[in-house]
Design brief:
By secondary structure, the protein is mainly β. The protein is 11% helix and 34% strand. The strands form six sheets. The chain has a six-stranded antiparallel β-sheet, with no helix packed on it. Strands 6-5-8-17 form a four-stranded antiparallel β-sheet, with no helix packed on it. Strands 7-18-15-16 form a four-stranded antiparallel β-sheet. The radius of gyration is 43 Å and the shape is rod-shaped. The protein starts with a helix and ends with a strand.
Length: 322
């Protein structure tokens, strides 16, 4: 550096500042090296810091923003969508009397009222029930082929119904009487060791943590208000059906001169056979038959509702506050 610059007025004014600038530079380097220069904290940024329990690395989950039901059977409001990553609904308590007050429905299985048609080729028959002619079972719909000649007889077999009854029972699960909705908040920080930093939540929310099973609340944390909730119900209700009452089904069978009449024009009946009369005399060749009416159906006997409903999937929820 030339003697002219060193003796210039500029050099004379700046020379006293050099030691100060150097000291500031060294101090900044030291602060960075020891990690003392940090960005603003969660609360300084206008957010909310939720404390994390000491056992959060274990089986405790959370913290959550939580809201409880205000009245029986009403679930809490939904989580705030802009602040929530996921949500979980838990509950406890139900009306046991109402859960067992469902109507237990039963119905006869299959075609319990299918009638049987007998064709008797003995012109001197006096009681159609005394013969051993094979019965043609009539389907609920459609035609069967027969071979009946003049001077023969026809009758309907209608045995007492002792059919199996099956449950028609799909009860809804009871609602929880008390419920809590746990909202998993979106984190606004990357360092969970200091706590969970979130954007400030709207009012009315508690801060809670949870643990599967029934346990004590985590010590040395603000989460000391303990409740046990459940995730679901085990529905062990069963409908026990009484048997059909043995009613004889009444009905009407149509006999037809041609199979085509039975299929295409079922009202073109050549002879109607009913359960009210033993033998019906046949006066022309008949080729087909179909079931035209069923006048009664068997009812299942007394039914009972057995079993029980119970809560399952216990979860301990610990919240801050009283």
């Amino acid at each position: 550096m030339s003697n002219a610059y060193q003796n210039s007025p500029v050099a004379q004014r700046t020379r006293p500042l050099l030691p100060l600038l150097g000291a500031l530079w060294l101090a900044a380097c030291h602060l960075i090296a020891v990690g003392q220069v940090e960005e603003a904290g969660c609360e300084e940024r206008g957010h909310t810091l939720l404390p994390v329990p000491a056992a959060s690395q274990g089986a405790w989950e959370g913290p959550f923003l939580a809201t409880r039901s205000a009245e029986d059977f009403l679930a809490p409001d939904s989580c705030p969508a802009t602040l929530t990553e996921s949500e979980r609904l838990l509950g406890r308590g139900f009306d046991e009397e109402k859960a067992m007050a469902f109507d237990c429905g039963c119905a006869v299985s299959g075609d319990a009222c299918r009638l049987g048609l007998r064709i008797h080729d003995n012109p001197n028959v006096t009681d159609c029930n005394e013969t051993d002619h094979e019965v043609d079972r009539l389907p609920a719909e459609g035609c069967i082929t027969i071979d009946a000649q003049p001077d023969w007889d026809a009758s309907i077999e209608s045995p007492p119904v002792n059919a199996r009854c099956e449950p028609r029972f799909e009860p809804e699960k009871p609602p929880f009487q008390t419920s809590i909705r746990l909202c998993t908040p979106l984190a606004a920080n990357d360092d969970p060791d200091e706590g969970l930093c979130i954007e400030t939540a709207p009012g009315g929310f508690e801060t809670c943590v949870l643990h599967v099973g029934e346990v004590a609340c985590p010590t040395n944390t603000p989460y000391q208000r303990r409740d046990v909730f459940y995730e679901d119900f085990d529905d062990g209700r069963e409908c026990i059906c009484g048997e059909a009452d043995g009613t004889e089904c009444d009905g009407v069978v149509g006999l037809y001169a041609e199979l085509s009449d039975c299929i295409n024009n079922p009202d073109l009946v050549a002879l109607q056979v009913t359960t009210k009369k033993y033998c019906h005399a046949i006066d022309q060749p008949l080729k087909a038959a179909r079931l035209r009416e069923i006048d009664s159906a068997p009812a299942c006997g007394p039914t009972t509702l057995e079993g029980s409903v119970r809560e399952v999937g216990a979860v301990t929820v610990c919240c801050s506050g009283p």
